[in-house]
Amino acid sequence: MVRIQMANERHVDGIISVCRAGYQDVSKGLLSDSYIEARCKAFYNADRVKKEVSHSGPSWGGYFVAIENDEVVGAGGGGMTDEKTSWLYVLYLNPLRRNEGIGTKLLQAITDQQIEYGAKEQHVTVQKGNMKGIPFYEARNFIFQKEIQSKDIKEEPRAVDLEYRREL
User: Which domains does the chain possess?
Assistant: First the structure.
Protein backbone atom coordinates (compact mmCIF):
# COMPACT_ATOMS: atom_id res chain seq x y z
CA MET A 1 0.00 0.00 0.00
CA VAL A 2 1.46 3.34 -1.07
CA ARG A 3 1.19 6.22 1.38
CA ILE A 4 1.91 9.90 0.75
CA GLN A 5 3.72 11.95 3.38
CA MET A 6 6.03 14.89 3.83
CA ALA A 7 9.64 13.88 3.32
CA ASN A 8 12.37 14.13 5.90
CA GLU A 9 16.12 13.51 5.89
CA ARG A 10 15.80 9.73 5.88
CA HIS A 11 14.08 10.02 2.46
CA VAL A 12 16.90 11.98 0.78
CA ASP A 13 18.53 9.02 -0.99
CA GLY A 14 15.15 7.74 -2.19
CA ILE A 15 14.16 11.18 -3.53
CA ILE A 16 17.44 11.45 -5.40
CA SER A 17 17.07 7.96 -6.86
CA VAL A 18 13.45 8.43 -7.97
CA CYS A 19 13.96 11.94 -9.38
CA ARG A 20 17.09 10.99 -11.30
CA ALA A 21 15.49 7.85 -12.73
CA GLY A 22 12.28 9.70 -13.58
CA TYR A 23 14.06 12.63 -15.22
CA GLN A 24 16.30 10.30 -17.22
CA ASP A 25 13.28 8.25 -18.29
CA VAL A 26 11.23 11.18 -19.59
CA SER A 27 14.21 13.01 -21.13
CA LYS A 28 15.92 10.12 -22.97
CA GLY A 29 15.87 10.85 -26.68
CA LEU A 30 14.70 14.43 -26.12
CA LEU A 31 17.87 15.84 -24.57
CA SER A 32 21.54 14.89 -24.79
CA ASP A 33 22.87 12.40 -22.24
CA SER A 34 25.41 14.96 -21.00
CA TYR A 35 22.70 17.56 -20.41
CA ILE A 36 20.48 15.05 -18.61
CA GLU A 37 23.37 14.08 -16.32
CA ALA A 38 24.28 17.72 -15.64
CA ARG A 39 20.67 18.53 -14.67
CA CYS A 40 20.50 15.47 -12.41
CA LYS A 41 23.72 16.52 -10.67
CA ALA A 42 22.47 20.11 -10.26
CA PHE A 43 19.01 19.33 -8.88
CA TYR A 44 19.15 15.84 -7.37
CA ASN A 45 22.22 15.83 -5.14
CA ALA A 46 22.42 15.17 -1.41
CA ASP A 47 23.24 18.72 -0.30
CA ARG A 48 20.38 20.29 -2.22
CA VAL A 49 17.77 17.66 -1.38
CA LYS A 50 18.73 17.72 2.33
CA LYS A 51 18.06 21.47 2.36
CA GLU A 52 14.80 20.98 0.48
CA VAL A 53 13.46 18.41 2.96
CA SER A 54 14.53 20.57 5.92
CA HIS A 55 12.72 23.72 4.83
CA SER A 56 9.17 24.33 3.80
CA GLY A 57 6.87 27.30 3.49
CA PRO A 58 4.73 28.92 0.84
CA SER A 59 7.53 29.43 -1.72
CA TRP A 60 8.68 25.82 -1.42
CA GLY A 61 6.24 23.47 0.26
CA GLY A 62 8.85 20.76 0.76
CA TYR A 63 9.01 17.33 -0.82
CA PHE A 64 6.10 14.94 -0.62
CA VAL A 65 7.05 11.30 -1.03
CA ALA A 66 5.15 8.18 -2.00
CA ILE A 67 6.32 5.36 0.26
CA GLU A 68 5.76 1.63 -0.08
CA ASN A 69 7.50 -0.86 2.21
CA ASP A 70 9.79 1.92 3.47
CA GLU A 71 10.94 2.67 -0.11
CA VAL A 72 10.44 5.99 -1.91
CA VAL A 73 8.58 5.22 -5.14
CA GLY A 74 7.67 8.81 -6.03
CA ALA A 75 8.47 12.38 -5.02
CA GLY A 76 7.20 15.84 -5.78
CA GLY A 77 6.92 19.39 -4.58
CA GLY A 78 5.98 22.91 -5.50
CA GLY A 79 5.37 26.36 -4.16
CA MET A 80 3.60 29.68 -4.40
CA THR A 81 4.91 32.45 -6.64
CA ASP A 82 2.35 34.99 -5.45
CA GLU A 83 -0.73 34.95 -3.24
CA LYS A 84 -2.90 33.10 -5.80
CA THR A 85 -0.44 31.35 -8.13
CA SER A 86 1.23 28.03 -7.43
CA TRP A 87 3.72 25.95 -9.38
CA LEU A 88 4.45 22.27 -9.43
CA TYR A 89 8.25 22.23 -9.58
CA VAL A 90 8.97 18.51 -9.52
CA LEU A 91 7.00 15.27 -9.77
CA TYR A 92 8.70 11.98 -10.58
CA LEU A 93 8.07 8.31 -10.01
CA ASN A 94 10.13 5.20 -10.20
CA PRO A 95 9.65 4.52 -13.95
CA LEU A 96 8.58 0.94 -13.18
CA ARG A 97 5.71 2.27 -11.03
CA ARG A 98 3.89 4.38 -13.62
CA ASN A 99 0.14 3.99 -14.19
CA GLU A 100 -0.63 2.94 -10.61
CA GLY A 101 -2.14 6.25 -9.45
CA ILE A 102 0.94 7.26 -7.47
CA GLY A 103 1.54 10.45 -9.47
CA THR A 104 -2.11 11.44 -9.04
CA LYS A 105 -1.86 10.98 -5.26
CA LEU A 106 1.34 13.04 -5.07
CA LEU A 107 -0.15 15.78 -7.24
CA GLN A 108 -3.24 15.86 -5.01
CA ALA A 109 -1.17 16.23 -1.83
CA ILE A 110 0.84 19.10 -3.35
CA THR A 111 -2.33 20.72 -4.71
CA ASP A 112 -4.08 20.47 -1.32
CA GLN A 113 -1.12 22.17 0.34
CA GLN A 114 -1.10 24.94 -2.27
CA ILE A 115 -4.84 25.51 -1.86
CA GLU A 116 -4.24 25.89 1.89
CA TYR A 117 -1.69 28.58 1.02
CA GLY A 118 -4.37 30.34 -1.05
CA ALA A 119 -3.64 29.11 -4.58
CA LYS A 120 -6.36 29.68 -7.18
CA GLU A 121 -4.31 28.44 -10.13
CA GLN A 122 -1.51 25.95 -10.62
CA HIS A 123 1.22 25.91 -13.27
CA VAL A 124 3.71 23.30 -14.40
CA THR A 125 6.34 23.07 -17.12
CA VAL A 126 6.93 19.89 -19.08
CA GLN A 127 9.74 19.12 -21.51
CA LYS A 128 8.48 19.44 -25.08
CA GLY A 129 8.00 15.92 -26.44
CA ASN A 130 7.59 14.34 -22.98
CA MET A 131 4.78 11.98 -23.88
CA LYS A 132 4.66 10.59 -20.37
CA GLY A 133 4.18 13.92 -18.58
CA ILE A 134 2.06 15.83 -21.10
CA PRO A 135 -0.86 13.35 -21.19
CA PHE A 136 -0.72 13.07 -17.38
CA TYR A 137 -1.18 16.81 -16.89
CA GLU A 138 -3.72 17.22 -19.69
CA ALA A 139 -5.83 14.43 -18.13
CA ARG A 140 -5.87 16.49 -14.92
CA ASN A 141 -7.23 19.63 -16.62
CA PHE A 142 -3.96 21.46 -17.19
CA ILE A 143 -4.22 23.58 -20.34
CA PHE A 144 -1.27 24.45 -22.58
CA GLN A 145 -0.22 28.10 -22.26
CA LYS A 146 3.05 28.64 -24.14
CA GLU A 147 6.39 27.25 -25.25
CA ILE A 148 9.50 28.39 -23.37
CA GLN A 149 13.05 28.13 -24.71
CA SER A 150 15.44 27.08 -21.96
CA LYS A 151 18.05 29.46 -20.63
CA ASP A 152 20.46 26.61 -21.39
CA ILE A 153 20.09 27.02 -25.17
CA LYS A 154 23.87 27.11 -25.66
CA GLU A 155 24.35 23.80 -23.84
CA GLU A 156 21.17 22.14 -25.10
CA PRO A 157 19.33 23.74 -28.02
CA ARG A 158 16.56 21.13 -27.77
CA ALA A 159 15.67 22.13 -24.19
CA VAL A 160 12.19 23.56 -24.71
CA ASP A 161 9.52 23.51 -22.02
CA LEU A 162 5.78 23.74 -22.38
CA GLU A 163 3.92 25.69 -19.71
CA TYR A 164 0.55 24.37 -18.57
CA ARG A 165 -1.98 25.92 -16.18
CA ARG A 166 -5.17 24.91 -14.42
CA GLU A 167 -7.72 26.58 -12.19
CA LEU A 168 -7.97 25.25 -8.64
Answer: 3-167 (3.40.630.30)
